[in-house]
Amino acid sequence: MSGERQRRGETGPAKILEYTVKCPVCGADMRVEEYIYDMPGVGKVILTSGRCPRCGYRFSNVGLAETRGPVKITYRVEKPDDVNALVIRAATATIRVPELGLEIKPGPAAQGYITTVEGIMLDFIDKLDFMCSEPDAPRDKCIEKRRELEKARDGAIPYTLELYDPEGASHIQSKKAVVTPLSRREEDREAGEDK
Ligand SMILES: [Zn+2]
Which of 35, 66, 131, 150 might form a disulfide with 47, Cβ 3.0–4.6 angstroms? Predict the structure, then answer.
């Protein structure tokens, strides 16, 4: 009680935790720090970051401080403005755009970050460019798909962004975002392979 400080007016992140983990790349001890940050319009957010002193590997994650268990967040893009919505993409989140056949699943070294819907579409464009840089990539299909993703990035075509997060730490900052808590069965299905 007596230790409670008046932080009114202070907006910077405050360190809440510090611990040591093994670097997933080289196995050296690396220090990880957690900060809590009161993000305007979003609420309390935990920022995690660490850097391996031996190999330089960086880890970072972000997520809501109050997690809600497994959730699916659905957000409909209908006009150019909609791509500016802020997205907290926790390391545990899977991102899907069913209409465009897009999916990013979190790998073992997945990181979390704060971005926008536009930033997520740029990620998909980067991934497409990488796949299309293969010598035997289907040239015509690559050009066609890139045009489609550029339209999606600009909010020029309608689509649905889905975030599935088993930890419920992800967030889309918009009144249009629909958060659906998932039952265990739905959670298994969301985590499973595509039908
Ligand atoms: Zn390392």
Answer: 35
- Write out pLDDT tens, residues 21-43: 999 899 999 999 999 999 888 89
Tokens (6 digits) for 44: 């309390």
Residue 35 sits in a domain whose CATH number is: 2.20.25
How far apart are the C-alpha atoms of 153 and 97, rounded to whole Å? Answer: 12
User: How much distance in Å is there from the Cα of 22 to the middle of ligand 1?
Assistant: 8
Amino acid at 81: D
Q: What is the mean pLDDT of residues 33-62?
A: 94
Asked if 118 and 28 sit in the same domain, the reply is no
CA–centroid distance, 107 to ligand 1, in Å, is 18
Full-model pTM: 0.84
Ligand 1 center from residue 38 Cα (angstroms)? 31
Range(s) of the domain holding residue 48? 14-64
Residue 46 pLDDT exceeds 80 = yes
138 C-alpha vs ligand 1 centroid, how far in Å? Answer: 37
Q: What does the block give as tokens for 75?
A: 């957000």
